Amino acid sequence: MKTQKIIISCGGTGGHIFPALEIAKSLQKKDSNLDILFVGASHRMEMQKVPKAGFPIKGLWIQVIYRKSIIKNILFPLKFIISLIQSFFILLKHKPVAVIGTGGFASFPILYTASWFRINTYIQEQNCYPGLANRRLAKHVKRIFVAHDGMKIFFPENKILNFGNPVRKSLKLSSISKKDSRDFFGLKENTFTILILGGSLGAPPINKLVQDLFFLPNLFSEPFQFIWQTGESHNENDFKNFSNCFKTKFIDRMDLAYHAADIVVSRAGAIAIAELCFLSKPSILIPSPHVTANHQTINANYLKKNTAAFLISEKEIKNQKPDSYFTNLIDFIESLIQDENKREEIGKNANQLFKYDAADEISSIVLADFNFNNYV
After folding, report:
1. Which pairs with CB-CB distance under 8 Å and at least 24 residues apart come from 133-139?
2. What's the predicted TM-score (pTM) here?
3. How far apart are CA 126 and CA 271, in angstroms?
4. What are the backbone dihedrals phi and psi of residue 253, each rounded to the nearest 5 degrees, phi first?
5. For the chain, N or C: smaller number of CB within 10 Å?
6. What confidence tens digit (pLDDT) does each residue in 42-66 have?
7. Which domains does the chain have, with CATH numbers?
């Protein structure tokens, strides 16, 4: 049988990369002979994360559009044209039967060019408000996979399929004990554990919360410990070292980190929320206000409305003094430390909010569209 080739494009953040990897794994699970190539932006995190997951990747000379800086956009027209030319030659060489994009500026050139070759093209949109690349690609692609209702205001209704967001099924561990997962991070077995996540690129307001709130003496009545992903933007000299804290810029073993954690403090990106809900984790969400249409706040409010998370705004963090921090937040954390049943209830509420088989649903549709062994 002739090997079929599929190109998947993603980039910029883990929120685009991880769904793409899950779709790739599902495609290969359905047929191990599929040849999958990733395309991303040169010098961005996908150039490390994708090969680490076992897939080849080619980088395009492309950049994001900076909305608040004309100077940073001076080279954008040239980079965009070069990226289209690069995409042309990638498609000419590999002749894929399908090209899938999961968002990010790197996905536009390859999908746009593929549509001119009349190759089957697909986009997967994680958020309730689509990114610029996916909005521009909508009229050129064959199908649009979404994770929210009401997306016909952005996309042609006849192209939309709502399967939810792909989540990393490998994050759910059943064969490893809580003790072993906490041992991995050098933490105590029977101490309440909080996982702090600022996203793959880091979130200074969340780091400030850790510094100003969680490490104040005598603020909480019970002991606890941390696994703290500070992000790449974190300066190692900003904070002291703490004996009850495992601190790193990026956590490679997120499966163990989630398994070790009793609660999670996180941004409210679509993929972060999908994974928290999939794992039934109670969470404290701090949405980024610097995203299109404030969609992280919309995500967080959806969980809050369903008693599935605690929501705190970045503005609250910036405006409060450490010694008067968030009485409600402290009460919430105290209640979770002392009440395992409440933790389980909030986690259960979260788990019931979404679908979790998106990667398999998407791969089945893509394969069926070119009649590859009748996968659907």
Report:
1. 133/101, 133/103, 133/104, 133/105, 133/107, 133/108, 134/101, 134/103, 134/107, 136/108, 136/112, 137/101, 137/107, 137/108, 137/111, 137/112
2. 0.86
3. 7
4. -95, 70
5. N
6. 988 899 999 999 999 999 998 777 7
7. 5-167+356-369 (3.40.50.2000), 170-351 (3.40.50.2000)
